[in-house]
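Readers outside the structure-tokenisation community will struggle with the description of the input data as it stands. For illustration, here is how one protein appears when written out as sequence plus structure tokens:
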Amino acid sequence: MRHRGGVARGRVSRLRHSLRLLFDQKVSSFDGQHFKLVEARCNPKPLQPRLRIWIGGQGEKRTLRAAARHADGWNAPYIDPTVWAAKNAVLDDWCAKEGRDPRAVLRSVNVGFYLGADAVGAARGEALYLKHWGANNPRGGFFRGTPKDVLAMCEAYQKAGVHRLNIALREGPYDWEALQAFAEVVLPAFGIRRPA
């Protein structure tokens, strides 16, 4: 069913009514505008006493407001540090309007991974990037080139307030040498030790 304003707006509206309901209660009954539950059960329950809810997206009016109101974490995909910082500021504003401490919401970004360990690998990564996204992709949240080429970008994400950076791998082929080089070059620059 389409709601006024489109499918996404309707989903976010329903989220306000139902978030955590089935996870937090043994038996749930609810009679709301969009749906009705009568003695509904959701089993097995999560192992955690309170399941963390993450909301992903960039919509400033509804998505970020829903994240400020309900989420333990917010994630935005494939945007550069400048755009991410602007969206992050909007989330902070929504937290203030909702009376919520903005530090209660973890912040992350998905970054497309198209690096190579060296110039030859970087050329392969660039060809794969163009295959996946085309030459005119307006988004800037992609690691391209070699690991040394993305150090400044990682630093900009960190300064913008990103708590977690998620490497997003689309369909392969995957360049394992590039991932290893990223772990050896980039992670130590931010005080992250590579797992043994």
Remarks:
- Residues 125 and 131 are 10 Å apart (CA to CA).
- Residues 1-51 form one domain.
- The chain has seven helices and seven strands.
- The first helix runs from residue 7 to 18.
